[in-house]
Amino acid sequence: MNRRRVLRLVAPSFLALSLLPGSVLAAEPMAAPEGFAEVRARFENLTPSEVKAAGYIADPPVCVAAPDGSGAMGIHALNRQLHGEQFPTDTMDPQNPPLLLLSADQSRVVGLEWEAKDTGQPAPELFGQTVPLEPGHPGIPEPHYMLHAHFLPDGQVLFNRVNPALSCELPDTSIAGGPAAPMSTPIVALMAGLVGGLGWLVLRRNRSTRNA
Predict the structure, then answer these.
(1) What CA–CA distance (Å, rounded) separates 44 from 166?
(2) Which of 10, 31, 71, 100 is buried most deeply by CB count within 10 Å?
(3) Do the Cβ atoms of 143 and 135 come closer than 8 Å?
(4) Mean pLDDT over residues 28-35, rounded?
(5) Distance between CA atoms of 90 and 117, rounded to whole angstroms?
(6) Cβ-count burial of 45 within 10 angstroms (0-12 exposed, 13-18 middle, 19+ buried)?
(7) Exposed, middle or buried by CB within 10 Å (0-12, 13-18, 19+), for 162?
(8) How many Å is the maximal CA-CA distance in the chain?
(9) Rounded distance between C-alpha atoms, residue 101 and residue 207, angstroms
(10) In three state form, how does the secondary structure of 38-58 look?
């Protein structure tokens, strides 16, 4: 069974990033700053089952790619408990990222992400980086602070929205099974539409039965 597909999410907020003052649009690979190698070591080699056991869930598993083809963020796996503790209080715990960035087939942790609510506080600092204020996205519509840290070879890290070396294209495989394939926005929208349509038909039928 060939599962080779290219799945992309090009969110409107991604296209608006360049319009936000003070937003950093490019970065260079760098040696891991103090403290980052330790947190990377805790997450980089986790298996999919260990990621889930640690409370990180990709639901739905949507792979986020840059609209211009310059790379990808990967699939976001959210730890709801950590996010609920950190985001509303505009804090970022460097040792406990609320999101993991996964490869398109969900087999590897390829990066980390932190998010914090904008409460009017000065821009947070994390691992020596000034965290940029970014536009909102589905789930969090208001602008907020986000830092993406992508793992690179030789212990280097890229603090940038996307990793140019990362893709949302799944590898060729002839074996069925494994993690569920990431979903694109049109598929998610289609599923939502089907569910909504079925609910409307059931409601209409019940009303017709009562009025008969």
Answers:
(1) 15
(2) 100
(3) yes
(4) 96
(5) 5
(6) exposed
(7) buried
(8) 73
(9) 46
(10) HHHHHHCCCCHHHHHHCCEEC
Residue with tokens 């993991």: 100
Please state the pTM of the whole predicted model: 0.73
Least confident piece of the model among 15-19, 45-49, 159-163, 165-169: 15-19
Q: Nearest-CA neighbor of 93 among 84, 102, 101, 82?
A: 82
Phi-psi category of residue 47: left, alpha or beta, with phi > 0 → left and psi -120 to 50 → alpha: beta
pLDDT by residue (tens digit) across 179-207?
555 544 333 332 333 333 333 333 344 44
* Partners of 157 in the β-ladder: 30, 151
Q: Shortest CA distance to 55 belongs to which of 33, 84, 94, 87?
A: 84
Can you give the pLDDT at residue 121? 95
Using CA atoms, how far apart are residues 195 and 188, in angstroms rounded to an integer? 11
Residue type, 175: I
Between residues 37 and 185, the one the model is more confident about:
37
Return the residue matching tokens 């996964």. Answer: 102
The answer to whether the bond into 171 is cis (omega within 30° of 0) is no
